Amino acid sequence: MSTAPTPPAFSGSRLGWGDLPRDLRTRIQRLAGAEVVSESTATNGFSPGFASTLELGDGTCVFVKAVAPDLNPLSPTLARAEVHVNRLLPPEASAPELLFADDDGTWVALGFAVVDGAAPTVPWEDAELTLALEAVARLTRVPAPSGLRDLREMTGDLFTGWGRLAQDRVDLDAVLEALPEHAAWLPAALPRLRRWEEDGVGATAGDRLVHADLRGDNMLVGTGTGGRRVWLVDWPHASAGSPVFDVVGMLPSVAMSGGGAAADVFARHPGAEGMDPRDVRDVLAGIAGYLVRSAVQAPPRGIPNLRAFQLAQGRAALDWLRVLDA
């Protein structure tokens, strides 16, 4: 099976502090408790808008994200979901603390405690990948707090890629052209891929805390109490469900970022122990279908390279899926 070059880790459009509306800057400084004296813009992630660590006049720092619908129409909805989720997260989630939020109906801003960490090295270093897998394994044991949606609400919409491709020859041809190494296998496999993705929705039922968007760019590796550790960030999709979604869903991005074939990483994943192989296959089929179909759609506003990122993950997901289908 082949792998693709890693696309850029960040493909959105970042704003600077001076690009934000004056009244928003005033509110952020009031909530932070001091004036901003400098900024350091984040270079990872996919949300268009503002994302910077702000140094304050009192010597402290805060990480602030701010989005508006003219940058991307879905970003404010996701930001509001992130505020809701972060107010519910237990300490075991390993998420930076939400310090404040501001929403004027157009701009949504979130302020987080700054943690001593940085995005994982690309390609993945084995020591950092081990820390990340251990963090995911710990998350599989965390009960979902009350107030989160059922993960099946998301996967019911998400796990429809193969069904849609079966009904749209133009998109299917685009996928076959984009993934020539899978072009001979995919058409004959399509009926069972549709069946597996449908079964995958039920396989995501559960009562654990699920991040539902785990990738390297949603992690920070650094130092905390007790030594090296990983923080999990960007929680707008968090749900109550089965840990199989996080364990399986992260590995295509690991593979496309040089961390090893997804099937091999899964075999040593401390969070994978005891998972039903059929659930793994069915959830993987749902994720793969979403990724490859999304990859041949027009790019969303403000995120021009997202489709290349999804295609690279989709390729890695299909590499793994074909191992399971052998």
TrEMBL record:
Aminoglycoside phosphotransferase domain location is: 76-276
Q: Name one GO molecular function term.
A: transferase activity
Entry-linked Pfam families: APH
Instruction: Specify the superkingdom.
Output: Bacteria
InterPro entries listed in its UniProt record: Aminoglycoside_PTrfase, Kinase-like_dom_sf
Key words of the record: Transferase
The molecule here is called Aminoglycoside phosphotransferase
Annotated organism of origin = Actinotalea ferrariae CF5-4
